[in-house]
Amino acid sequence: MTEFSFQPVSGLELPRFAGVPTFMRLPHIDLDNPRLTEVQIGLIGAPWDGGTTNRPGPRHGPRQLRDSSTMIRALNAVTSVKPFELINCADLGDVGPNPASVDDSLARMTAFYDRVLEAGIVPLTAGGDHLCSLPILRSVARSGPVGMIHFDSHTDLYKSYFGGMQYTHGTPFRRAIEEGLLDPKRVVQIGIRGTAYDMEDREFAKSVGVRVIPIEEFHSRGVEDVMSEAKEIAGTGRTYVSYDIDFVDPAFAPGTGTPEVGGPNSFQALQVARMLDGVNIVGADMVEVSPPFDQSGGTAFLGVSIMFEMLCNMAMCVKTGTAS
Ligand code: MN
Ligand code: MN
Predict the structure, then answer these.
(1) What is the pLDDT of residues 242-285, one digit of tens each?
(2) CA of 130 to the centre of ligand 2 (A)
(3) How many angstroms is it from 186 CA to the middle of ligand 1?
(4) Across 234-290, where does the E strand assignment appear?
C-alpha cells in the first residue's frame, strides 16, 4: 500500500487509457469518507438533464467528462500553475438525481451541495443541463447573494416555458435572482447570441442591472477587454462562474443541445477561463455537454480543458485565501 495522496495518477506511471476514470485522475472521496475534511476543491458530477427544453443528453455528461479528463496533465504550461500541488482536490462522485422528478432532483442536489459546502469545499461541477446551477446556487449563496460570471449563448433568464413551467434550463438565473441568490448588479453574461423568441429575457436583465455582453461586442472588443470588464463587474466579492459549453462555436463544440453559430473558437474558450485569475471564485460549473451529440468526443475534451483552466484559478484563490 502506498501512502494516500491527493495527487492525480500520472500518465508516466499508468497510461491515461488505463484505470478507473475519475475527474483528472484524482482520488475518489465520497461524502461519507473520513478524508472529506481534507478536500479543498471537490469535482462533482451532476448527471441530470430534467430541465432540458430542446435536445437532451447532458445527463451523460459527467461520465464522458470523467473519461476525457484522464487526458489532463497536472501542470498548466501557460500560467505555470500546478493546482494539485497547491491544494487538495478530489472527485466527490455524482449527485444522485431523480430522473422522474424535477422538484426532487433540485432538492437532492441542494442537499448534496449543502454537505459539500459545510465541509468547507469549493465545488467544481460537471453537468448536467443548466438548471443544475440553480440548486448549487441555493447552497453556495446561503451566506448571502453572490456575483456571477456566466459564459453562454443564452441568458437563461426567461420567466417560464410551456405555459408557466418555472424550472427549465432556460430559467435558472431568473429564479436565482428572484430568490436573492445572485446580486444582479454583480452578474455579467458573455457571448449571448442566436435567434430569439422575444427580448423578454434581455429586458429583465436590463431592469435588474445584469450586464449582457452580446457576441458582436465580444468579437469586436476582444477577449482581454471583455474579461477585464467582467472582473470589474464581479469585483472582489464572492463570485460563481457558470460555463455553458454552447458559449463556444458549434464548429468546436457540436456536442450540446442548443447550439448557436458565430461563437468563440476553442482557443478563446480557454482564454476566457484563464483570465478568471484574481476572481473570488466560490464555485464553478461546466454544463450542457451532451455526449450523444458529441460524435468525436471533442466537445467533452474541450469541456474538461476549460474545467482545468477554471480549477487552476480556483486553486490559486483557495491557496492565497482570497476565497471566502
Ligand atoms: Mn445555459
Ligand atoms: Mn446555452
Answers:
(1) 999 999 999 999 999 999 999 999 999 999 999 999 999 999 99
(2) 8
(3) 18
(4) 239-244, 281-287
**Cβ distance 133 to 172 under 8 Å?**
yes
Question: pLDDT tens digit string along 291-308?
Answer: 999 999 999 999 999 999
* 170 CA distance to ligand 1 middle (Å): 7
Domain residue spans of the chain: 26-319
Pairing state between β 41-46 and 122-127: parallel
Query: Class of the 26-319 domain?
Result: alpha beta
Bridge partners, 284 (sequence order) = 124, 241
Q: Of the ligands numbered here, which is closest to the C-alpha atom of 172?
A: 1
Q: What is the pTM of this model?
A: 0.97
Cell 482581454, residue? Answer: 224
Ligand 1 center from residue 210 Cα (angstroms): 15
Q: What phi, psi does 173 have (nearest 5°)?
A: -85, -20
Question: With contact defined as beta carbons under 8 Å apart, do 299 and 255 qualify?
Answer: yes
Q: SS3 for 206?
A: helix
CA 169 to ligand 1 centroid distance, Å? 6
Whether the CB-CB separation of 15 and 64 falls below 8 Å is answered with: no
Ligand 1 midpoint to CA 248 (Å)? 12
C-alpha cell at 241: 462562474
| Distance (Å) from CA 214 to ligand 2 centroid | 13
Give the H or E element holding residue 184.
Answer: strand 182-192
Bridge partners for 122 per DSSP: 41
Expressed in angstroms and rounded, the spacing between residue 100 Cα and the centre of ligand 2 is 23
Ligand nearest to the CA of 191: 2
